[in-house]
Structure formats: structure tokens, C-alpha cells
Amino acid sequence: IGIEKAPDGHSAAMVEVNCETDFVAREQDFRGFVQQVAAQALAARPASVAQLLEVKLDTGETIEERRRALVAKIGENISVRRIAVLTSKSALGAYVHGTRIGALVVVEGGDATLAHDLAMHVAASNPKYRTPADIPTDVVAKERENLTEQALGEGKPPEIVAKMVEGRWRKSLNELAFTGQPFVKDPDLLIEKLLKTAGATVGAFE
């Protein structure tokens, strides 16, 4: 994972570049290539990986040409898999854990520290949706169905099953939605409460 942040801190690009072994992932040429890709993703704002691969580096070669040269030098397949570029009017959090997990978070109304902490939270907890209201109805229905089947399988009476499903569904919502999750730095504090205290809201996140 490579992240490049704009000097003003209001936009950033994140890229995923894959190789085959941990040895290459730690190798300087590979890591340098990842940062070049992230920098060009931020500068060019391409709509797809295919467009990004055609962007030219300072050397005059395209990212794709550089990738092929690196493959020939290292002897291991390398691929640019995903890109994301986010922009914020307020604060933008960026966090990389090791070499394999990265996160970007748009925070409106918060400061740089909060944005960084929220990016770290996303990297650790991997929320699927921003708020419970953002969870699609088909996902809600399927989750309720699964929880009901589980509860019935435990041999409980129907009235008990209904209460069990409701309680487990609230817990499931918290696991799926960013704002419902316990904050990784303070499990007793929900993200929703953390944002409210800071007078902030979360926009997009990757």
C-alpha cells in the first residue's frame, strides 16, 4: 500500500501494488515504485488503473513501462491492483499499517489528529458502511434472515427468538457501520459519540 498526500493535506491518493513475496515487498526498488504510483495517482487523478498505467513518470516512461522493467529486473510479477483518491475541505486522515493495510478518511469539522485516528480505526476495524442508514435493505434482510435461522437452531421459543435477533442485529449493525463501531483506541467509546464530541462528521473512506 502506498499513500501520497497533497502538501495542503486536503487530498490524498492510495494505491495497492501487488508482488509475490514478502522479500520483494520490503525491497527498495519495489517500495520506490509504489510511492511513484501513488504520487502519479494524486497528480493525474485517473478514473481507472488502466488510465494510471499510461501516466508518464519524470523519466519519460509510463508507469506500465516502469512496471515491466521492474518485473524483468526482480523476476517476480508485479501488478497495480487498486487506486483511490479522496478530497476533504476540512481534514483528511491517512494511515498505513505495515505494508498491506491502508486507509483514507474524509472528516468534515475535525482536526488532523482526529482524522489520523479515524484512518487508523478504519485500517483496524474495516467498516463496510458509513452509518447504519447506509446499509442496503437487501443486506439488512439477509442478515436478519441469517440471525433468525441461527436463533431458531438453538431451539428457543419464537418470542425469545425475536428478542435475540433484535439484540444480535444491533451488534451486527455496529460491526458493519463505521459510526456504530467501538473506537479502537477506546473500546468504551463509539465512533458516533467521538464524532459528536468533536463536532465532526465522516464523509467518504477507503
How is this structure best described in words?
This protein is of the alpha+beta class and 206 residues long. Helix content is 47%, strand content 23%. It contains eight helices and eight strands. The longest helix has 19 residues, at 158-176. The chain starts with a strand and ends with a strand. The model has no long low-confidence stretch (mean pLDDT 92).
Report the β-strand fraction as a percent range.
Answer: 15-25%
Rg, alpha carbons: 21 Å
Shape: globular
Q: Helix proportion of residues, in percent?
A: 40-55%
Mean pLDDT: 92
Taking the sheet with the most strands, its summary is: 3 strands, antiparallel
H and E order? EEHHHHEEEHHHEEHE
List the helices and strands and how they pair.
Elements: E1 2-5, E2 11-18, H1 22-25, H2 28-44, H3 49-53, H4 63-74, E3 79-87, E4 91-97, E5 101-108, H5 112-125, H6 137-153, H7 158-176, E6 182-183, E7 186-190, H8 191-198, E8 201-205
Antiparallel strand pairs: 1-2, 2-3, 4-5, 5-8, 6-7
Helix pairs in contact: 2-4, 6-7
List the main descriptive attributes of the protein structure presented here.
single chain; 206 residues; alpha+beta; 3-stranded antiparallel β-sheet; globular
In short:
By secondary structure, the protein is α+β, with helices and mostly antiparallel strands. It has helices at residues 22-25, 28-44, 49-53, 63-74, 112-125, 137-153, 158-176, 191-198; strands at residues 2-5, 11-18, 79-87, 91-97, 101-108, 182-183, 186-190, 201-205.
